[in-house]
């Protein structure tokens, strides 16, 4: 056998030897690919439940869900006149990195409490990113107020509504109705003084003077919104005023609490520019007085207040059929 034939034979022998090794390599590569695909799928399937777990842990132990609920509810108590919330009406759910919070808002009209608005809110971590409301009210209430479109008006400001027409509408209502009315006063009074002047109706909410309502502008020129507190004892379990011995002190405590979350409070409220720090500073140095209140009671009893010298403006709110049982 010559040299060329020997070389050719060696090449054939080498190919025979290497063929099994090549097959092993190919099998190993295929196996690795399958393992990689399975590992990737496993990781992908674990990401979603892990993220849900992290979301739950964040709201349970990081930014507590109850804190966001407290901010939401307490904001509405001090910015939405004559409203209340029910603890059992809060529905909470969690989605990826967010918390959904739904609840009903109520209003006293006469001697009964009626559902007036449904809220659907979504918090992305610690930020309110979505808020939708479904109103059950018959009237449209001020939203994003300007200096003039207030229903509760400081004595030095002018009302955009016609008070005489409001009294005329009240007069035309049937006697068998109960009425919610927004009463603006001709001066600053203590809440107790107002209650004494209106013994036959319920004074449900008082707008508190915080040093800026005469112009409705903060020190930096922002239009501010009325803030205040429920006047009567509130027995609703969720209410921060339920067992309050002093509604004034509870109101001030709420403002201190909300000041730490003012961005959320502003987003929750239908009013804007709360300017809480400036207003807290004033209230800590001055006695609390009201310039306007919300009242409710029989149409005839409210009509009799027309000649009361304490009252400057009246704006009608909700009207319901007779439910006064006192």
Automatic annotation (TrEMBL):
It comes from the Bacteria. Keywords: Membrane, Transmembrane, Transmembrane helix. Pfam families: Sigma_reg_C, Sigma_reg_N. Residues 170-318 form the Sigma factor regulator C-terminal domain. The chain crosses the membrane at residues 36-61. The lineage of its organism: Bacteria, Bacillati, Bacillota, Bacilli, Bacillales. The keyword Membrane applies. Residues 27-113 form the Sigma factor regulator N-terminal domain. It comes from Viridibacillus arenosi FSL R5-213. This is Anti-sigma-M factor yhdL.
